[in-house]
Amino acid sequence: MTGPLVPANSMVPYAYNVYEPVQPHWFYCKQVESKMVWLPFSVLDSIRLEETFNSENVIVCTDGGRYDVQLYDRARTAVYWEEEPTEVRRCTWFYKGDADSRFIPYSEDFSEKLEAEYKKAVTTNQWHRRLEFPSGETIVMHNPKVIVQFQPSAMPDEWGTTQDGQTRPRVVKRGVDDDQDEVPDGEMPQVDHLVFMVHGIGPVCDLRFRSMVECVDDFRSVSLKLLQSHFKKARDDHLISRVEFLPVHWHTALHGDATGVDRRIKKITLPSTGRLRHFTNETLLDVLFYNSPTYCQTIMDTVAFEINRLHALFMQRNPDFKGRVSVAGHSLGSLILFDLLSNQKTGSPSSGPATNGNAPPNVKQIGNLSSVLEMLGLSEYLSTFETEKIDVESLLMCTIDDLKEMAIPLGPRKKLANFAARKAVKEKTTEPTPHPAVSKLPVGRTMSSIHVDYNYFEIGTGQVSVVYHALVFEPVNFFALGSPIGMFLTVRGVEKIEESYQLPTCKGFFNIYHPLDPVAYRLEPMILPDIELEPVLIPHHKGRKRLHLELKESLSRMGSDLKHGFMSSLKSAWQTLNEFAPQSKSESHCLFAEENKMVESPEPQKEEETQIKVGMLNGGNRVDYVLQEKPIESFNEYLFALQSHLCYWESEDTALLLLKEIYKTMNIHPDHSVH
């Protein structure tokens, strides 16, 4: 395997004759923006993997429990969402890739061979070793710090010199430097609070076309950094650990095989401007679907079932979790959550008609699983369902993807989906009389279709009339990010949200938006329509207002001061004239009155504004919270409008507000030095 050994130059001795084994670090392969890259596990995860890697059939939880690593198969799989398994490696040797500056790990077998040759070179103090491998690569070890790899197209001589001089050698590195290689410390297993995040329209969540999982990963990473910087004392005192954020998907349920809507939409889509029409079908149509009772029911079922499924799975994997739960929604996702939370029953979640995963109220009236399958002519699949321990209640909760995983063919899947849909409709038509606060649209209002049914709430929360399933927990807070709730309520005919209105099971509500977000709308003017109230300005995470905003305010105050000084000088001049012209007294009084109107109307203080009680939607506290725009964004509002709607996932200010409100319920506050 090796080439000729060349003794080291006696004039340049190396003091590296003491061999120390390399410290392995575990990596996983992941697709990032259409490229496959190797990323390091955190220090904590790598230590756990290293401690158990010799064991067979061992599964190790990593990434805060969101992924499992099958050590024997060297595979990393997602726990809470669908994701292709990715390769895992125990890494010791790396080379720098051609396309970027990232170091890429060699295979475990190749690394073992390199380590063995490195050990020989160290113990014998013989360097300038040329190692030729059957695959064509040539590694030259000049000294412990200078090791390079040559590609087959540029074979070096015994001194490592390439003959054609065209191909640059690759840099080879041994081991991992935790600081230089940006290896994260890792997440503690204890979770203080759980937040479910529901996405908006479309299958992607930002301008880089990333998935909801990736965007929530970013938000979680930002929150972890803020906990270290802003809640350091509480962390050092072991009072807090971390907040877990989990994504909730619903887009695939609407656009997959379950509805067939994509196939039908494609047939009627015009062939021109294909990319634009595809974008429209993937994104903007979601808004129209949500206003259709048929597809709104699909969306609402998916969101409620998925949240309850994730909650049950999280509790199963974290049996010692004693914290509370919040929900957050972006764009249309916030409207979905608002409608869902508006229709929750008060009291214990387990006391409602849809308990343990939201089974319909009269599941017992359906019969057992055997009779249901016999009725549908699907008795041959009874053993399949029994193997998965599925009864009638859990059958009605199964999604199309669940049935696919159990290898149920398309025809039976359609029958089961139709059966579940008919049951939902039956429950809807036989449900008890609605709450007195709910009534049909007032006389004089017309509906666009005889099939479209809307409820109109006198307290001001009208929405499409569908079945709303109970959540198995009562959320502490609801965070709406870039939310169109205000616009949708207004279009539905809601003129005012009564000050007494509060979400039945959720006491906290925060409407968070960027000032340039074209999709976001305020809610406080619907609660207090007669009061002009500025939204609460979210503090910068570094503890002050952005400089350009302070400058803008300073210029505004300067203008106000100049105006005040000018009017004072004018008033003094009129008083002087008045001494010589008594007859002008009445005219001067008129001018003084007008001047007083201008100078005696100072803007209310921000501290006073934040203390104003704005109904009970957020427990008497403020509802609208606005982010501070960046300096570059203030130059062109239209240019940054779309970006502003997608900025929340990487916004430190947004994440810090969520952390403050979450930990406030635990009587824990940020450090004063960075507050």
Secondary structure layout:
Elements: E1 25-32, E2 35-40, H1 43-52, E3 59-62, E4 67-70, E5 75-78, E6 86-91, E7 93-96, E8 103-105, H2 108-124, E9 129-132, E10 138-143, E11 146-150, E12 170-174, E13 193-198, H3 212-230, H4 232-236, E14 243-248, H5 251-255, H6 261-268, H7 274-282, H8 284-290, H9 293-317, E15 324-330, H10 332-342, H11 369-375, H12 382-387, H13 392-395, H14 400-405, H15 410-430, E16 438-439, E17 454-457, E18 463-464, E19 477-481, H16 485-491, E20 508-513, H17 524-527, E21 536-537, H18 547-580, H19 585-599, H20 606-611, E22 624-626, H21 641-645, H22 652-664
Parallel strand pairs: 13-14, 13-15, 15-19, 19-20, 20-22, 21-22
Antiparallel strand pairs: 1-2, 1-6, 3-4, 4-5, 5-6, 7-8, 7-12, 9-10, 10-11, 11-12, 16-17, 17-18
Helix pairs in contact: 3-22, 18-19
